[in-house]
Amino acid sequence: MKHIVLFVFSLLSLAVVAQCDPDFDFGDAEWGASPDPSVGDQFDTAYVDVPYADVFHVLVPTDASAIDPMFTLPLDSVILLNVTLIDTVTSETMALEDIGLEIVCNNLGSSPDPCTLISGAQYCASLEGTPTTGGVFQMSLDVNAFVTIFGVAVAQPYQFNGYILDVIGESTGNNVAESSNDIHWKLFPNPANDQLEIQGLPADAKIEIFNASGQLITVEESSMRGLNRSFETSTWTAGLYFVVSTTGHGVQSRQVVIEH
């Protein structure tokens, strides 16, 4: 199910585009999209007060079993209903509009609702706007997948999750604000194998590390060790991770890849 709608985002330009082109090369695949959060692919980083435009491509399957193995029926369509964000620090639930973004679908006019995607075709949507709020957000999408049973259209609801949206900075009206600890703290090596080192953090820093699916892997509250932290990563699954630092200066994040 989670592989039916996946995302590929590429930072376009400082000008927000109005409509995307469904031109991703899926090769001989019958369905899919890219990147896939289950293999470490994620959204590009956004910046507060900087116009943002990323593109998501999807090739909708013809068989509903790609969405739910219980539905071994031809798929009619998939409708995007809602996009939800969860702040990984405060656990607050919000909409894209709450941080200045929106999704604009392009289904090539195949249905009056631009977010209705017909099976067997490729479509795209743009995540666009000017972010107003910084943070690291888990993103999920609520969809209905429609199949026809005895002549009646039946909707199968599902929530796609595992996506991370990283928005850096605090609103200053025109610029991205960088805190002093954001300038100095760093992590290494990157990629890491069995050990991850973090340097340059104040002693009161709270460190949370999330995997690409948004699951909290480890958390460390303020430490007397001060500026340096060390994490054993030999048992972590290879892939992309997000390191989130919360201090009196605000919330900042870094990305690290674990390779074994």
Described by strand count, sense and barrel closure, the largest sheet is: 6 strands, mixed
Task: Give the N-to-C terminal Cα separation.
Answer: 28 Å
Radius of gyration: 20 Å
- CATH-derived architecture of the largest domain: Sandwich
The computed structural class is: mainly beta
Using the coordinates above, name the CATH class of the largest domain.
Answer: Mainly Beta
Q: Provide the β-strand percentage band.
A: over 45%
Number of helices: 1
**Assembly annotation:** single chain
Which fold name is given in CATH as the topology of the largest domain? Answer: Immunoglobulin-like
Number of strands: 18
Please mark out the parts with pLDDT under 50 across 5 or more consecutive residues, or reply none: 1-17, 172-183
Q: Helix share of residues?
A: under 10%
Shape: elongated
| Number of individual domains | 2
Compute the average pLDDT: 79
The run of helices and strands is EEEEEEEEEEEHEEEEEEE
Could you explain the architecture of this structure?
There is one protein chain. The protein is 2% helix and 46% strand. The protein is mainly beta and 260 residues long. Mean pLDDT is 79; it is low at 1-17 and 172-183. The radius of gyration is 20 Å and the shape is elongated. It is built from 1 helix and 18 strands. The strands form 5 sheets. Strands 1, 3, 4, 6, 8 and 9 form a 6-stranded mixed beta sheet that branches. The chain has a 4-stranded antiparallel beta sheet with strand order 15-14-17-18, with no helix packed on it. The chain has one helix spanning 180-184, and strands at 46-47, 52-59, 75-87, 93-95, 101-106, 116-118, 122-129, 135-149, 152-168, 170-171, 176-177, 186-188, 195-199, 206-211, 216-220, 229-232, 239-247, 250-258.
